[in-house]
Specification:
The structure is a homodimer of 124-residue chains. In chain A, the strands form 2 sheets. In chain A, strands 2-1-6-5 form a 4-stranded mixed sheet, with helices on one face. The first copy, chain A, has a two-stranded antiparallel sheet with strand order 3-4. The first copy, chain A, has helices spanning 13-16, 47-56, and strands spanning 27-33, 39-45, 60-63, 68-71, 80-87, 93-100, 115-118. In chain A, 11% of the residues lie in helices and 34% in strands. Chain A has one domain (4-112): Phosphoribosyl-AMP cyclohydrolase (Ubiquitin-like (UB roll), Roll), CATH 3.10.20. Chain A is mainly β. In chain A, a hairpin with a 4-residue loop joins strand 3 and strand 4. The A-B interface holds A 15, 22-23, 28, 30, 32, 34, 37-39, 41-42, 54, 82-90, 92-93, 95, 97, 105-107, 109, 112-121, 123-124 and B 15, 22-23, 28, 30, 32, 34, 37-39, 41-42, 54, 82-90, 92-93, 95, 97, 105-107, 109, 112-121, 123-124. Strand 5 of chain A pairs antiparallel with strand 7 (115-118) of chain B.
Chain lengths: 124, 124
Amino acid sequence: MADVTDLPDRLEPSLAARLKRTADGLVAAIVQDHDTGEVLMLGWMDDEALRRTIAEGRVTYWSRSRQEYWRKGDTSGHTQHLRTLALDCDGDALLLTVDQVGAACHTGTRTCFSDVLVGDEADR
Amino acid sequence: MADVTDLPDRLEPSLAARLKRTADGLVAAIVQDHDTGEVLMLGWMDDEALRRTIAEGRVTYWSRSRQEYWRKGDTSGHTQHLRTLALDCDGDALLLTVDQVGAACHTGTRTCFSDVLVGDEADR
């Protein structure tokens, strides 16, 4: 895909118009491993994070704790490469399928959902 | 499972202590079909919705638009039966796998993510 600097610096208006954001301007982004179907993590995107993700094909989030953009893997090497992106029926959630390099979770586990509270891990 | 009225009316305190809620007291709940791995929808839960979900084995959300509890399927018949529940590493998202009866989406489609913006539906 083209370098982000070559692309318009606004999210496509017809897409932007469909997003229903939280009070702090964010949409939830569910990230699923393209090949295995595992749900890897949930992140948050504002319009600019979504624009960068689509433009670059590398997943970028808005970090609520650090209040900054966060392109997954820039520090860890555990990059996420976008395969598909879907918007839900009411515009407040995105579903991304990705090719995940290494662990998705900053704790080093493959997914962020390794703490199973109900049911059996083996049953997932 | 036991009827919810037979069970304690507070979410288990050690679990409640681990949740990181939005300003309006909610945690995102990703719902995945247990058998196919499809991500069906994203809902929101407060502590009471999570307590009911665990106690009854039927998925209950907090509806942000209607400001009320919403046990999936009570109107539509499209119930969700809990199989597994996991909490993510930072406590702000839940991943539920369910047995989904009928369409998960109120629009009648199997999942809420049928609007593919990037990539090919067939490639998901």
